[in-house]
Each structure stands twice: as structure tokens, then as C-alpha cells.
Amino acid sequence: MNEIIISIFIVIGALWILIAAIGLMRFKDIYSRIHATTKATSFGLLLTIIGVTIYFATFTVALKLSLIIIFIYLTSPLAAHSIAKSYKNDRDSKKLL
Amino acid sequence: MTQNILDIAVLICFLCMLIAMLLAFVRLVRGPSMYDRIAAIDFIASITMGFILIYSIVIKKSMYVDIAIIISLISFIGTVAISTYLKLNIKKDE
Amino acid sequence: MRIITKIYLAISFLMYYLVKLIQANVYIAYDILTPKMHTNPGFVWIPLRVTSDIGILLLSNLLSMTPGTLTVDIRPDKSELLVHCLYNVSDGKVVDEIEEMQDKIITLTS
């Protein structure tokens, strides 16, 4: 029974990472690509981490994995903001020239 | 029987992540601007984290979780460093 | 008594964040997997009512994780926020949603 729950979580997580990759290929605008990679990748990793936590089911592993989740959810929007802002600066300076 | 289900699920996960990594590499090679490539590199680091987490299920050792922490730290610092470097470079050109 | 209200507000904010997260991921997966893209990207400047630094951090984090919005830039005097939207920029739906988030954050951090 436990294995079935773990399998569901990790398969949906991997599918969400695949969806993010398809979005990275299909969108035409760079901002839309950043949308796809930020949201879908964090969600896929969240589901994968929940599956791994259920598999090991010890306290130290749960602590480490919750640290990873908090770190991803704090830094992934920051990385997206950093890329988008430097692209915007680039385009603005080219428009000025 | 139940162990069999977990094996099949791990196989499907590896397949999905391999296809995702292939698509990200295509975007890394083809990307029209530098910023597409930075987004693709960030995405590849995330896929590597997923790979290692699922590999820790295959090998049944929780030690591999530490590697995922280090990858999440380094990929964030790398992404911010490259984009800040590009931003500073543009300002110097003006 | 004040601590209990604080904890209640934090938990309700976390629930709101989780609901928005799942909604955002379902929207973006639907948008990627259907053959015809119905995105209509554009930019909008949002006037900020949140003044504290941690409030602005929470708002931009929440905006980047909710359906179809991405924080791009902020004015140097922290008065306006530049947001990139995927869907229906022209009508005021996006702005109303962001105003609701700002209300929640002001009640949380005050």
C-alpha cells in the first residue's frame, strides 16, 4: 500500500518536470519560458520530495528534505526575478542606443 | 508484487526526466539569447536534483539526500551570479 | 491572545499559498499541453500598499508562484511593482487579485 502512494507521488512529480521541459520548448517569449520553469519545476520537485520522505520515513531525512523544500521555494522566484530583470535591462539599453 | 510497482514507477520517472533533460539541452544549444541559456541551466540543475532523489530510492541509502541540498545551494548562487555579471557588463558598455 | 491570532493568520496564509500553488500549476500544465496556446502576455505596473521589506518579499514570492504572474522589477523608492502577466492583461481581474493578496499580507505583517 505504501509503495503505491510513493509511486503515485514520484510519477506525478516526474511528469510535472517533463511538462516544464515541454513548456521551455514551446513558449515563444522568454518571460513565458521563465513562468514555465519556475512554477512547474518547483511543484514537481515538491511532489518528488514528498514521495522520498514517505519512503525513508525517518526524522533526520524528513528534516533535511523539508529544508530543501523551504530553500527551493525561497530561492526559485528570486532566480526567476534575477533573470527577468537582467533581460529587461538588456532590452532597455538596446532600445536607447 | 508491490515491489514490482515501485520498480516500474522508478523506471517511468527516469524516462520522463531523461526526455526533459534532452529538451532542456536542445533549448541550451538553440536558445536565441543568453538569458534562455541561463534559464535552461537552472532547469537542468533542478532535473539533476530530481535524478539524485529518485536514485536514492533505487539504492536505498538516505545519504544521497545531502547531495541534493548542495546542488540546490550551488545552482541558485550560479544563476544569480551569471545574471548579475551580465547586468554589470551592460552598464559598463554604456 | 495576540500570539494565537498571529498563528491563525499564518496558517490561513499558508493554506491560501498552497491553494494558489496548485491552481497555478494546473493552469500552466493545461496551457502547455493543449495544442492551441491562449496566452496573451503583457506588463502592468502595480501600486504598492505594503511598505515593510518582509511584506514586499512575501508579496513578490507569492506573485511569482501564483497563476500567470511574475515579478520583474521594482521602482527604487518602493512605490510600484512591474508584473508580467500571461492572461488577460487588459481587464482589471489581475489587479483585483493582487489587491486581495496585499490585504492579506497587510493583516499578516501589521
Task: Describe the structure concisely for a colleague.
The complex is a heterotrimer of chains A (97), B (94) and C (110). With 97 residues, chain A is mainly alpha-helical. Chain A is built from three helices and no strands.
Tally of alpha and pi helices of chain C: 3
Task: Strand order, main sheet of chain C: write it out.
Answer: 1-3-2
| Oligomer category | heterotrimer
- Taken from the alpha-carbon principal axes, the silhouette of chain C is globular
How would you classify the helix and strand content of chain C by structural class?
alpha+beta
Low-pLDDT parts of chain B are none
Q: How many whole angstroms does the radius of gyration of chain C measure?
A: 15 Å
Shape of chain B: elongated
Written description of the protein model:
- The complex is a heterotrimer of chains A (97), B (94) and C (110).
- Chain A is mainly α and 97 residues long.
- Chain A has one domain (2-96).
- In chain A, 93% of the residues lie in helices and 0% in strands.
- Chain A has helices at residues 2-26, 30-56, 59-96.
- Chain A is elongated and about 65 Å long.
- The relative contact order of chain A is 0.12.
- By secondary structure, chain B is an all-alpha fold.
- Chain B has helices at 2-30, 34-59, 65-93.
- The termini of chain B are far apart.
- Chain C is of the alpha+beta class.
- Chain C has one domain.
- Chain C has a three-stranded antiparallel sheet with strand order 1-3-2, covered by helices on one side.
- In chain C, strand 2 (69-74) and strand 3 form a beta hairpin.
- The radius of gyration of chain C is 15 Å and the shape is globular.
- The mean pLDDT of chain C is 83.
- The chains are: A mainly alpha (97), B mainly alpha (94), C alpha+beta (110).
- At the A-B interface, helix 1, helix 2 and helix 3 of A face helix 1, helix 2 and helix 3 of B.
